[in-house]
Amino acid sequence: MWRWVRQQLGFDPPHQSDTRTIYIANRFPQNGLYTPQKFIDNRIISSKYTVWNFVPKNLFEQFRRVANFYFLIIFLVQLMIDTPTSPITSGLPLFFVITVTAIKQGYEDWLRHNSDNEVNGAPVYVVRSGGLVKTRSKNIRVGDIVRIAKDEIFPADLVLLSSDRLDGSCHVTTASLDGETNLKTHVAVPETAVLQTVANLDTLVAVIECQQPEADLYRFMGRMIITQQMEEIVRPLGPESLLLRGARLKNTKEIFGVAVYTGMETKMALNYKSKSQKRSAVEKSMNTFLIIYLIILISEAIISTILKYTWQAEEKWDEPWYNQKTEHQRNSSKILRFISDFLAFLVLYNFIIPISLYVTVEMQKFLGSFFIGWDLDLYHEESDQKAQVNTSDLNEELGQVEYVFTDKTGTLTENEMQFRECSIHGMKYQEINGRLVPEGPTPDSSEGNLSYLSSLSHVNSLSHLTSSSSFRTSPENDTELIKEHDLFFKAVSLCHTVQISSVQTDGIGDGPWQSSLAPSQLEYYASSPDEKALVEAAARIGIVFVGNTEETMEVKILGKLERYKLLHVLEFDSDRRRMSVIVQAPSGERFLFAKGAESSILPKCIGGEIEKTRIHVDEFALKGLRTLCVAYRQFTSKEYEVIDRRLFEARTALQQREEKLADVFHYIEKDLILLGATAVEDRLQDKVRETIEALRMAGIKVWVLTGDKHETAVSVSLSCGHFHRTMNILELTNQKSDSECAEQLRQLARRITEDHVIQHGLVVDGTSLSLALREHEKLFMEVCRNCSAVLCCRMAPLQKAKVIRLIKISPEKPITLAVGDGANDVSMIQEAHVGIGIMGKEGRQAARNSDYAIARFKFLSKLLFVHGHFYYIRIATLVQYFFYKNVCFITPQFLYQFYCLFSQQTLYDSVYLTLYNICFTSLPILIYSLLEQHIDPHILQNKPTLYRDISKNRLLSIKTFLYWTILGFSHAFIFFFGSYFLIGKDASLLGNGQMFGNWTFGTLVFTVMVITVTVKMALETHFWTWINHLVTWGSIIFYFVFSLFYGGILWPFLGSQNMYFVFIQLLSSGSAWFAIILMVVTCLFLDVMKKVFDRQLHPTSTEKAQMYSNTVALSDEFIALQPLSRARNQLSKLSLLKQIQVSSAWTPYAVSQKEKQRAHLLEECWNEL
Questions:
Q1: What residues bind ATP, as annotated (predicted)?
Q2: What letter would DSSP give residue 865?
């Protein structure tokens, strides 16, 4: 019983085997030996709470925060012992913070509940009892047969059983899962593909054995055991058989599938799991400051307690005549009394810890993140995509980046491939206006055969590939040359996973519908832009891929249709770096066509023009082109039988299937004959060079991590400005052993030391990087840190993440940022402190797993230099200001104890204690943290060097923290002693001779304090809007109005009202008004003078930009600061600038035409200095 309870609570989950057995249509065996497996239902639960657990779960999560837990302890102490302040003073702010956070989280969860109910209540059709039954999505069980119609979304992970096509195929899009809009083909096993009606499916007796659920969208292993006529037929199941929840059925009328994973076990739901929590440097600093202030608090409480007992050592102060002790107090333990007094002082001073800091920071991050999405400068009109914020916890981290790690393809480049050149049998060609033109002399060719390369239109027919020997030797005549080129482009047209989409497919069945279409009518869809570019290039040359079914691929050559039987597809993977297809030609011969990176194809080749092709590939790479090599192999009947058997065994294995498949692929893809190589161009995105140069000027080191070959990566790095022509390029490539790698690293380190070159660049390949990271991490890091730019090529995804991890844990612990656009970049995006996803053409995995998503790499400069700069300045000021104003608040309370014999008498009324952080001083700093712009945004973007002023968490350094803390203590001393000298000599400040009491004294201190800290916030504000004016001066007015009402009326619900008529009496004294003004001016005068001297004697780049920007924007006196020869040119600019400024809105990121004009003028004025 206890074990069952633990399992239900999730503490002791039931044991699960590595596989699950699913009986289709839930037809369980009747022999009684079967123990049914329990599967979860199909409900999707993205919500965090329920009605029953919301309160306890939310409270538990909130009290895990140190500040909340601390105030809870203080509140409990106030309830248990006699303390100088009411429990309300701690309880009400705590209740406010907890309530606001709970309402926010509860509302967000309520929205998730609504979304879940909509999804779970969607209608679906399930085959039960020989008929179709309409039910809700949440009622689907594992084993149910579900019918899905065209354009419907799959409600669970289904294994395809049949479709309206005879071959059992269907097309789906997975845009909602990975962003890929291309059509993907899925196929059913032949035995179930013919069961196209409910009645036929009702006769199916089959069992599916598959792996337990996992999050990988592209991995599925299983097998289907079909019982037909007392015989069992075993068929392998792979990703091509699995229809994922969230995908949509396209170009197919209907399909039937059996549910294998449901609810939260579907692959889509497993990908909901949150990533590891990232914490910003500001948050870590904030926790450090909190601990320091906690130490100050405990120190003040201990000092006060010790001084109290020191004072009471004299008998006259231990038990004065007006405060006699009770018998119980005289007999109580001294230790208990000491502890009780210590806790009482702890309660009295507890407001030095700002409880409202956390809720203010949370609101600032949440509301501030909207500005990124609203920024029109980050909107990409062509793709209609705006910037997205997936987490608001790292906004300020954008202003602290020291290293940028970026992918190349799709991130720095457009990922729009255009076929440019190729090498066929050792001869280079380039495409010009849809025709192949040879580069350089071709001695073995005549004008006649070169005309073939320009156009295939003169060829009426081409013989089939009937003799393998004709492809294993160099062609000796025109016909053989034509066959070589024909075979090359046939390989390109057949070795791919391209799909063709058209509404014409509906209702055609399984016929070759595409064969009647002209090439210009065909629209290709591919998961890889490279594949699409190559198939389209082959079509322009004259060999047109016109469609495929499960078993055939159709190619049209000059109007003549050829059908190749598709026997096997050896899928691409990042380890092999190639893909292959095995096809049977119309003549009956079986061929393997393979394409992939030259490092994975050339070593497997035993024939063809290998050396010439290798030279051509290197030449292509030097031009920055992406290269692929193409090869083939012909099988004999016996060879194919062995291959077919081994593939079947590997694909039906439930254990170690991937390892077995890798072994079989290695066995098949050998002894290849090289046909040639292709070269496609991926052009750079707009303003990539400018962005990288700006990052470098900002002091940010840029590393490019790519899977491309060495020459291609270096060429692109040079073209995009990552490497300069004058930069000394160092190489760590082709290392074969640890010792060789170590020696090379030492040589590079010596060269860096000896060479008097300002900048060095380093090129590392994946193999050498593995060796360097294995034994020589420190030496490798030393070389990298001394290089301005690093390029890592031939990188595997996990290697990218490992490099970032290495930089993160280095002694300097720099802040890292990773940028990528594809699924292979997800690991590095999640590893970096800040992950940026590019919403490109390789899907949305990177964007979904990132912290921020942008449409183009060039937007990175605005994101870092403007948004990151602003967010960091705002939150750094917010954090330090909170601690400053609380030091101002509680230090007079500490000083007051010296004048009341440490009797724990409070200086302020309990209502003021409660509302100080909640009402009187909260809004100005919140609005500042949302709207502050200390420099014009366009100056920040155009002058990246200003980014250096805030790097390395400079504004939250110990030095700055101590300045704010000392400032708070100094202001508190002025508040207290200024008020004390005014009314501490028993002088009457009222016309009727009445004296001020202790509550008046405390109210005077509190009034000066509220005004001072609010005006201090005003002095920190550079960007004034009507909202800033409203909350700044409105907070002071609200304090006066509230105090007049609170102290001017006898409130019947208050037990005691010490403040009755106190505030009115205070304001009726002219001396009090004079003292308030004098103390406020005194406090702020010293601070202002320090800032003036600092700006004049030691101005930072940011302060120079502020002074310059303000002078240009606000006054024509700027003309006097320039030489007379330039004054006239500035007059017209400044007059226009003032017109623009008057009409500009307060919105921080307004990007109107006038705002851009203003920025342009500012930049011109700056450049003329």
A1: 407-409, 531, 572, 595, 626, 706-708, 794, 800, 824-825
A2: I
